Amino acid sequence: MNVREFGTVDLIVFSASLLLTFLVGGYYAYKARRDDSVANYYFGNKKIPPIPLGLSLAVTYISALTMIGVPTETYTYGMVNIWHVFATIIPSIIVCIYFIPLYYRLQLSKMYEYLEIRFNRKCRMFSSAAEIINAILYMGITVYLPSLVLSAVTPISTHVAIILTSVICTIYTVCGGLKAIVWTDTLQSGVMFFGGLAFIIKAILVVGGFGEIATALERGERNNIFDLNLDPKLRQSFWSLVIGSITDAFYPLACSQPSVQRLMSCKSIKQARIAMIVSNIPKVLITLIAVGCGAAAYAYYEHCDPLSSGQISKPDQLLPFMAVDIFNSIPGMAGLFVAGVYSGTLSTVSSGINSASAMILEDFILPIKPSLSGKSQLFVSKITGLILGVMVISMAYLCSLSSNTIISLVFVVRGTCSGPILGAYILGLTFPWCTGLGVLVGQFIGAAFTCWISVGGLVYGRDPATDGVLPVLTDGCGNFTINNEHWNVTQGLMTTNLVQNSTATYSEHEPAEYFGLYGITFLYYSSIGSIITILIVGWGKTGHL
Fold first, then answer.
1. Which of 112, 151, 251, 503 measures 20 to 30 Å from 516, CA to CA?
2. Which of left, alpha, beta for 512 (phi over 0: left; psi -120 to 50: alpha)?
3. Residues 6 or more apart from 441 whose CB is under 8 A from it?
4. Cα→Cα distances 170→41, 335, 416, Å
């Protein structure tokens, strides 16, 4: 792989961003040293303003997956990815109208208390356990991505970068609690926005303007915004992105611990709604910037795909590789962009550790030891946070062994864990006759079925004809070193054999039989898990359960 690394100024800018984040978290940890209550640690004593809470809520779910994953998907599959934007708006409206008043009416402090109130404790424990597993897997993926980015532009190895990332966010999370997280998130949202904005402005200038990008997208068959194909096996289309992304985004906003923890940290329903509305602004802007970055990257590398030519080893290294390239004459800007990517990860992981430790304390430890004092609860929470940090590091190492794109891994994890939980909430809110036993069985079958088809899709692969990988060119590379490794940018295990000095990347496949359910795009996994949970309960209503 051809190495293009940070300059000295880039390293200084990047290091200063990490140091500032650490100092902000440390400052609020110092301020909170005399108020060691659990209420302050998890809810900031409900004294946090709604605007920083909204920014914190936004960057909790944006992370490096948006900054790096969405541009990679756009580069590979086209402008149809613009529909990711809808995933940030429609669920927020529903949460503001229906869910926030419910949270405040019941005065929920932990998300899955509702399931115990509505059904029984077993439903609460099942959902809480699934969410903790989901959080650990998701955080591991989130940590791995910027570590991969850092290894592409610095001499630091991916494994060392994983440890560095995890240690920083674990320390300020464990020490400072929610206040430290919210204010560092506020800082990080600015770094993410300006880092992405600087990248897309420079990329547009280098490529030659919007017209050149549009022309390149048209030549590369990537101007596919209105791909209305209804085939559920097609990896990306208008329908799969709108339906799948909205369902996938609805769960973290309405039914996850990080979301309810922030919304319940506001003083009133009005402030909680303000926080939710504010959260849409950075989510929409950063998602649009991410799609634009992917489009500009394709125009820039139209005639010399860096993966095909062996300049990078994994698709998700595309954007940081390009950042170092285009900012070569502007010291510090590549460092700012990578700092933006890292900021997204720090916010996501810190929120995940804080929320998961809260669920472990409330749902699994206090029922066994209800007599724990406030100080003991806080101590247990911090120890749990440290353990979760170690587990995140381990999960990130496992992610490094996967050959799939990060976005596909995220949808697999979320679909398996979150879809059935969302189904349980829909049942609880809209079907008064459903029982705890029915919901518990529905969740279990929904999770098992989604896990089966998602793992099957990863292991046995999907029909390449439905993956929609668009062609890339190498005719402008000149002499380059061919990467003969498998190019696994799709959900399945598609092998691409590259031929030197060719003008395109061709795929050779032996005739094979592909099981139909394994071919369903991962974008539908959350919807499938939710629907199966609801249908199982409906089947039980007829007398079978």
1. 251
2. beta
3. 536, 537, 540, 545
4. 14, 23, 26
365-405 pLDDT, tens digit per residue, is 888 888 888 778 888 888 888 898 888 888 888 777 765 55
Whole-number Å distance between alpha carbons of 479 and 204: 27
- 140: Cβ contacts below 8 Å, ≥ 6 apart: 391, 392, 393, 394, 395, 396, 398, 399
Cα separation, 180 vs 27, whole angstroms: 8
| Whole-number Å distance between alpha carbons of 506 and 307 | 13
CA distance 286 to 283: 5
Residue 243 to residues 6, 63, 407, 533, Cα–Cα distance (Å): 40, 22, 16, 17
Please tell me whether residue 165 adopts helix, strand or coil conformation. Answer: helix
Contact 15, 150 (CB under 8 A): no
Alpha-carbon distance 429 to 527, whole Å? 17
* Per-position DSSP letters for 381-445, written without gaps between them: HHHHHHHHHHHHHHHHHHHTT--S-HHHHHHHHHHHHHHHHHHHHHHHHH-TT--HHHHHHHHHH
Distance CA 303, CA 306 (A): 10
Q: Which residues pair with 497 in a beta bridge?
A: 506
Report d(CA 267, CA 45) in Å as an integer: 9
Quote the pLDDT of residue 201: 93
Three-state secondary-structure class, residue 506: strand
Q: Which two tokens stand for residue 88?
A: 């940030």
E strands, 18-94, in order: none
Distance CA 364, CA 465 (A): 46
Q: Is 451 exposed, middle or buried (0-12, 13-18, 19+ CB in 10 A)?
A: middle
| Distance in angstroms (rounded) separating the CA atoms of residues 232 and 25 | 44
SS3 label, residue 497: strand
- Count of CA atoms in the C-beta half-sphere (13 A) of 130: 30
Measured in degrees and rounded to the nearest 5, phi and psi for residue 496 equal -115, 120
Count CA within 13 A, CB hemisphere, residue 289.
26
Rounded distance, CA 421 to CA 123, Å? 9
The encoded tokens of residue 511 equal 């005739």
pLDDT tens column, 79-130: 998 988 877 788 888 889 988 898 888 887 777 888 888 888 888 898 888 8
CA distance linking residue 325 with residue 308, whole number of Å: 17
pTM: 0.80
Contact 322, 230 (CB under 8 A): no
DSSP state, residue 316 = G
Tokens of 419: 């879809």
